[in-house]
Write a structure and sequence with these properties.
The protein is mainly β. The protein is built from five helices and 19 strands.
């Protein structure tokens, strides 16, 4: 199926079909957008991003309205406007265009999009998307430990399925949760609601050299609870470790927000934000090390998944 077909560029939310760009999606790390323009893609739609004269990020459709040349291959003028490298048409952050050869032309505009810069990333949406719908927040007591992105060679529905259960842990991941023997000891709860799903898994933590850095121990009860929402598609996972005898929670809690952004029919960008809450004064002294460890484990966990090495159908 062509990626321009409506099912791919829209989500079905509460029985209605809405454009994917109706919601804020993280699309690029802020540090990656420098002096020149860059292309990003959401559900087959291409966008050109650049920084205007004030350094503020902007986005337009990545096709000049004149001859459809990609504006992401253009240049940023000294006045901060994005210029096409074909005939020099140039545009401001509002999409207002100008033709150098025919300045009197009044129909040179192109589609422009809203860009919000938060948590070290650029987030793209329609221009009329309310700021109140921004999908990531700072939770009380949690600090941002790190963030990273990885491209899954799998369609969105497969990528989402991989992040919808924990039975794959012994076979895919190297650290989190249980080994194969621990599968028989799992506790599971799940509930579907009108706007989200909520899931909880609890089971024995396998041995790992990383555990002391996280204040956890082999044999602890590892609990993964998460909420999945679809406006946009994302899941927020909260990891706890508990003493199996006393039930006392270990000093570190991590919360990971995973945004699953469809790039094409067969690829999905994961933009991942890891937060931590440290309850022990001793581990708070080691906060930089703890943050580096949690981010390293997170990036290794996501980066070593095997779903990206398989060939998947484009339909569920």
């Amino acid at each position: 199926m062509d990626s321009n077909d409506g099912w791919f560029q829209a989500y079905a939310i509460r029985g209605s079909i809405v454009s994917v760009t109706r919601f804020f999606h993280p699309v690029l790390a802020s540090r990656s957008l420098k002096k020149g323009p860059a292309r990003v893609q959401i559900a087959g739609q291409k966008f050109a991003l650049w920084r205007d004269g004030s350094g503020r990020a902007a986005a337009v459709a990545d096709a000049c309205p004149h001859r459809k040349a990609p504006l992401s291959q253009g240049r940023v003028r000294p006045d901060g406007r994005l210029a096409c490298n074909y005939h020099g048409w140039h545009f401001d952050a509002e999409g207002s265009g100008c033709s150098p050869s025919q300045p009197e032309l009044t129909r040179c505009d192109t589609a422009a999009y809203q860009i919000v810069e938060k948590f070290g990333y650029l987030w793209l949406s329609e221009r009329d998307t309310p700021a109140s719908t921004f999908p990531l927040t700072r939770w009380h007591g949690f600090d941002l430990a790190g963030s990273f992105s990885t491209l899954f060679q799998a369609p969105l529905h497969v990528a989402l399925d991989n992040f919808s259960e924990d039975e794959h842990f012994p076979f895919v991941h190297f650290f989190l949760g249980w080994n194969e023997d621990g599968l028989r000891q799992l506790e599971f709860k799940g509930q579907n609601y009108g706007d989200r799903t909520e899931v909880l898994y609890r089971g024995p933590q396998r041995a790992s050299v990383w555990l002391p850095l996280l204040g956890a121990r082999s044999g602890d009860l590892f609990q993964n609870e998460w909420v999945t929402r679809f406006d946009p598609v994302r899941a927020v996972f909260t990891f706890h470790w508990f003493d199996p005898k006393t039930g006392v929670e270990r000093p570190l809690v991590t919360r990971t927000a995973v945004f699953m952004v469809p790039q094409t029919e067969t690829t999905t960008w994961f933009h991942i934000f890891i937060f931590s809450k440290i309850g022990s004064p001793f581990y708070r002294l080691l906060k930089p090390l703890v943050h580096a460890t949690t981010t390293l484990i997170g990036s290794g966990t996501c980066g070593t998944t095997r779903i990206g090495s398989c060939t998947w159908p484009t339909h569920p």
